[in-house]
Design brief:
7-stranded mixed sheet, binds copper (II) ion
Length: about 475
């Protein structure tokens, strides 16, 4: 799938200093081990090394029509990176776009310096290079994308998937990644530049729906087989209420990897940037199913309707070796019993003299208080506005404790959660020992750009005042 190759760690490679990622353990997200070296692979693991070039390139989102896209390695999505927990990922980025860019590693617990935000690194200038290097502590479906000028760069095709395999995964007949997106093309099949106030309010929803960079492709699956389908919603603003012909599937994973046990459902909502992993099948030969997004009213101005992403055709029968255990993983709850909120994060939209402002705690580009390593965070994320916003926290996984006081149907690790209008989502997370500048924001790209974001420091105890 990808062009990367493996090579063993060679002595003398650069170490990153001043950052420590905690070690994987029974529940990796809670452990901490000062000996964990973010720059060196675990014993018997490798450095997964690859080069990435960003540049303008021709791409056929729609068959027979050429778009000047912006690509990682001349493809949309960029190459799917695959690695194992405990490997080090080393990506040498060369930017051949006409403007600066970065790579943000969405969902990964990495040192702040590798997060790819303009808070932590100078964006890579045209013609410049930067090497990202960090260890992969967690299994799951992640993705990468620029963290500058996203409404243009991501819309034109800059994104890709990263799959990290764990030591103890369920067995499937196939393991596939589907990166969903939509793109707004003009009559000449070129990507429309950012639009007017409706788009700034709603976020952009394109009329061409893409699976792995192609418009409404045909997919096939063998009758009788069960596959692992990993979905990434890379859209600017589109929510995907995913259905596969209305047939039941099993949800087995979310943003932060496997969930405790499979959950049977006929649909699942992916806000922008969300990931979900499904066990799909078995189907009967000859069936034809729509992979589609059912109408979802996120209270934007556009009217919701069912829209197709792909067509799934079921081919001849093949034997199955799939084995999906009832227990997929142990997740330790961060909070037992009643939680005491430590912070309120208000999401608001204000229309005033400055036009439309998308705010956190009543200001754009909010500077939030530091959090201290090892101090449990319980945040009430409160949506004061009349439309949905997907809340994304960089660098750390959280657990959703409640949505308007109701516990979610299953425990999971997340980095993105939808916050419905006039609702409160209570989350808990534990800052492990990765000090630095971090951020959270709405992942509707136009809202993020218009200020619905905040930055804050993670500080060591006693190292800095926390208030
Ligand atoms: Cu938003």
């Amino acid at each position: 799938m990808s062009e990367h190759h493996h090579h063993d760690h060679a002595a003398g490679m650069q170490h990153m200093h001043g950052s420590v990622v905690h070690a994987p353990a029974a529940d990796a997200h809670l452990a901490y081990d000062a000996a964990y070296d973010a720059a060196q692979p675990e014993p018997d693991h490798r450095v997964v090394s690859l080069t990435m070039e960003t540049c303008e390139s021709d791409w056929e989102f729609t068959a027979g029509r050429t778009t000047r896209a912006w690509c990682f390695n001349r493809q949309v999505p960029g190459p799917t990176i695959e690695a194992q927990v405990g490997d080090v990922l080393e990506v040498r980025l060369t930017n051949n776009l006409p403007e600066p860019t970065t790579m943000h590693w969405h969902g990964l617990r990495l040192p702040a310096a590798m997060d790819g935000t303009d808070m932590m690194q100078q964006p890579v200038a045209p013609g410049g290079s930067f090497t990202y290097r960090f260890k992969l502590p967690d299994a799951g479906t992640f993705w990468y994308h620029p963290h500058v000028h996203e409404t243009v760069q991501m819309e034109r095709g800059l994104y890709g998937a990263l799959v990290v395999h764990g030591p103890d995964e369920p067995t499937f007949d196939a393991d596939r990644v589907f990166v969903l997106d939509d793109v707004l093309l003009d009559d000449d099949a070129q990507v429309e530049p950012p639009g007017g106030w409706v788009e700034r309010h709603n976020g952009r929803e394109g009329d061409v729906r893409l699976v792995n960079g192609r418009q409404e492709p045909e997919l096939t699956i063998a009758a009788g087989q069960i596959e692992r389908w990993r979905f990434v919603n890379a859209s600017s603003a589109r929510y995907v209420r995913l259905s596969i012909g209305g047939r039941p599937f099993k949800i087995i994973g979310t943003d932060g990897g496997l969930i405790p046990s499979p959950v049977t459902a006929t649909e699942v909502l992916l806000a922008t940037a969300d990931r979900v992993e499904l066990a799909v099948g078995p189907f009967a030969e000859g069936e034809v199913l729509a992979v589609e997004s059912l109408a979802y009213n996120r209270r934007s101005i556009t009217w919701p309707r069912d829209e197709r992403f792909a067509t799934l055709r079921v081919g001849p029968h093949a034997p199955s070796r799939a084995m999906i255990p009832e227990t997929l993983r142990h997740i330790e709850p961060l909070v037992h019993g009643a939680a005491v909120p430590t912070r309120e994060v208000h999401l608001g939209v204000k229309i005033g003299l400055k036009g439309m402002e998308f705010q956190i705690n009543h200001e754009t580009h909010h500077r939030d208080d530091p959090v201290v390593v090892g101090q449990l965070q319980v945040w009430d994320v409160i949506n004061d506005s009349n439309m949905d916003h997907p809340f994304h926290l960089h660098g750390f996984f959280f657990q959703v404790l409640a949505v308007d006081g109701e516990a979610p149907p299953f425990l999971s690790w997340e980095d993105t959660v939808n916050v419905p209008p006039k609702s409160t989502v209570r989350i808990a997370w534990m800052p492990d020992d990765r000090p630095g500048e971090w951020m959270y924001h709405c992942h509707i790209l136009e809202h993020h750009e218009k200020g619905m974001m905040a930055h804050f420091r993670v500080v060591r105890p006693g190292g800095e005042r926390a208030d």
